[in-house]
Amino acid sequence: MGNIRRTFTVEEKLRAVQLCLQGEQSTSSVAQSLGISRSMVTRWTRHYEAEGVQGLEEKRGKAKGLNKGWPRVKPLSLEEEVIRLRAEVDFLKKLKALRKE
Known about the structure:
Blueprint: H1 10-21, H2 27-34, H3 38-51, H4 78-100
Helix pairs in contact: 1-3, 2-3
């Protein structure tokens, strides 16, 4: 079997990032104490610096957009369906024009 992914809470990630940013510990020592790679702590730090605490939240499984994620349980509204169909028509027109060239 493969390795099991360990997920960390936002609080755990924030504490690790703060230790690195305040200079109390290096990224290597924080990573070693958590049992993860140094690149993971570095990634958390970059996300925190770019987005704040929201950058440390779990993003897996939060698909956004019309055709992402699980199949729809309820149908699209009429407006959403019109938008989707117009985009499809525009795409097909461009594809047809490219094929003529």
